[in-house]
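User: Can you model how adenosine-5'-diphosphate sits in this protein?
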Amino acid sequence: MTAMGYVPSWLNRDEVFEFLKPEPSARLDLSHNCILYLEDLNVSFDGFKAINNLNLYIEPGELRCIIGPNGAGKTTMMDIITGKTRPDSGKAFFGQRIDLLKMSEAEIAAAGIGRKFQKPTVFEELCVFENLELAMAGDKAVWPTYRARLSGEQMDRIEETLVLIGLENDRWLRAGILSHGQKQWLEIGMLLMQNPKLLLVDEPVAGMTHQEMDRTGELLTSLAGERSVVVVEHDMDFVRSIARTVTVLHQGSVLAEGTMDQVQSDSRVIEVYLGE
Ligand SMILES: Nc1ncnc2c1ncn2[C@@H]1O[C@H](COP(=O)(O)OP(=O)(O)O)[C@@H](O)[C@H]1O
Ligand SMILES: [Mg+2]
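Assistant: Here's the modeled complex, given as structure tokens:
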């Protein structure tokens, strides 16, 4: 969880004021209709090229699915965007101006990039509502004082999020007793409390029932528009059900990009998947 209002040390005085605007992503410059630029990225692990001249461009409000065989570099790509892994070369920008390669993981999260890992990490002993409240406070240490002063606007945001993630009738349930799918939705809700402009989601439907998968598809689709959503997923039926533009990664590079029909009929894509 990130502390709201964290100020990166390299900013000059004017940029600090800009950064402290109430909306953490107020600095985000989307003037070229691109929220994420990855250009010529390269990463090697002990001589093995996990990311190889990778280029990826995501538009504001887009829902992008990323597919590719195991080891294609999907998770490594997300690690670079979120500052967990540093590339050997290349560029990674959030909007026009925010250079992700100069920022820590906490700074990147505070700038408006949220990441949902595969395993849900909700606070099991707290109820659904409290989990959202805590996520909005951003820090367990300040939460008790924070919750005592919740404004109407903040209450409205929690309420909207509860409806969005379909847990409005379960708000007082302890998170520990939720189903696997419900925990995943709650965690997405917790990320939303930090107002991300780009949401990265790694394998959201792993372990879900068909009904939960349908509901997750609707949720991710509804989240795009106001923010960009990048979904990495193995389940092809699920990807087909939500996909607009699909990017296929292979050996650390983009192999194909287009609609699901376009990439599925691409002979190179067929070869890579049959070769698995
Ligand atoms: N920290 C690391 N050290 C060494 N090799 C790694 C590390 N992280 C990933 N790799 C390797 O990089 C390749 C890409 O991995 P990954 O990004 O996890 O692929 P994907 O998520 O598409 O399955 C794999 O061959 C993996 O073994
Ligand atoms: Mg992976």
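A couple of observations from the model: The first strand starts at residue 36 and ends at 45. The chain has a mean pLDDT of 89.
User: Helpful, thanks.
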